[in-house]
Structure formats: C-alpha cells, structure tokens
Amino acid sequence: MQHADTFGQLLRDTYAQRDTKDISSFSGGLLYAIERDDDYLSLTSSFIYFLTPDKFPPNEKRLLDMAQGRTVELACGAGRMSAYLQEKGMEVIATDVSDGALEICQDRGLNVQPVDFTDPASLIELKEEVEEIDTLLIFGNSLPVIGTQEKLTQFLNTAWEITSDSGRVMGDFNSPVPVRDQLHLDYHQRNRNRGNPIGLIKIRIRYLNMVSDWFDFWLPTVEEFRAAVAETKWKLELIEEPGYYFILSKT
To answer: I need a surface site. Which of 19, 92, 125, 189 has the fewest CB within 10 A?
Structure first.
C-alpha cells in the first residue's frame, strides 16, 4: 500500500529493535528494497543508518571531523552523524523531510528541524530559524534526490546564501560510471535514447507491505557534478575512494 513515510517507518522499526537508547547496543538491520522503474530491485539493509563511529567509512569520518561551528545535517535519517558531532561537543541540527527520522533523532537527544533540502524556500526558512550556519552536511548518497543538474546548482547557490562567510558544504555521491552490469548499461542507453543524463533513475522504496511514491534520483558523473559547481561561487575539493566525497568552501 502507498505510505507517505515508508522510509521513516523502516527507521522506526529498526530503531525499535535496540535493547536500550544507547544505539551502540544495536546489532542488526531490516531488509528493504529499492525498486527502479524498469522492475529492477535492489535489496539492502537499514543497518547503515545506525552505524557507530568506529564503523564510519574513513573519508566520511575525516570530513565529519572537519565540521566547524554551527552544523546542519541535511537528510539526516537516523541522525548517526549528528549524534557523533554532538557527542564531540558541537552544536548540531539534524534535519529531514521524514517524520519518522525526526522522531528517532529527537529520541536520541538531537536538536531537529523539518527541512526539505530540495526546496530552496525550506532552506531559507531553516536559516531564519537558526540564524548562522557554518557547515552543511549531506551524506548517505542523499544528494541525488535533487534530481537534476540545474536543481543541484540551485541548491548550491541557496547553500551559499544561508551559510556564514567561512561556510562549507561537505558530502558524498555515487557516480553512475564505471558499471559492468548489463541491466544498468541498458538503463543508461534508455536514458541516452530519451535525451536524459545516464545517471537519472526513477525509484521508489518498498518495505513490508508499504511502498513510497516514485521519485527521480540523479547520480551525477564527476563531470556533471563539476559543471554544476562551476555555476556557483564555491571552491571544490573532490576525493575519490570509493564513490566521491566533496568539500565546498568559500575561502
């Protein structure tokens, strides 16, 4: 059945498995599926949203440790990064569009705000609520939810407006290339035939008897990502290993 917050319910059910509110006691995840509009299904586990710092990918942790000042995590999910930074004594705000995600973050003692980072007006409203923002985080391959190169540039321009003079944006993304699986190569060709970027896919989330709405998910190539950044004032540092991590700075 259609469910407005399928992802949030997945996180709620996963979180309910823990023995205590100490997330370090959590030892498992729940399976869910990402369905593509060519009927391709990818099964994955919710465990990744509850990783403890000792299991963070090395480059992810390195960038997190570079966060400074008032930090906002966009698309925070279960808030593992916000929790890590808060435990280090930083001022952090966990944001998401999912009610379920925000409920969990609040239960973990985090400061939360509902924010749709794909909507510039929502980001501007966040700025009005919290005043100065020094670091924006967008990890977990959430950036592709933006959907297009044009919207990515728009997001980055808005991020410039709402961050301080020393502001940074840090995050990650997966590129659609290289890939060897013929099913993915066929999808790339379908996109070419339609005049779309090869990494533009339409997906939805399936969990138990719930299914989300379809949404566009654009995996940019490195060249497309650089082109989007080039239309802004940000300075880019790109790190490859695996996938891509990025640091955008004003100075």
So the answer is: 19
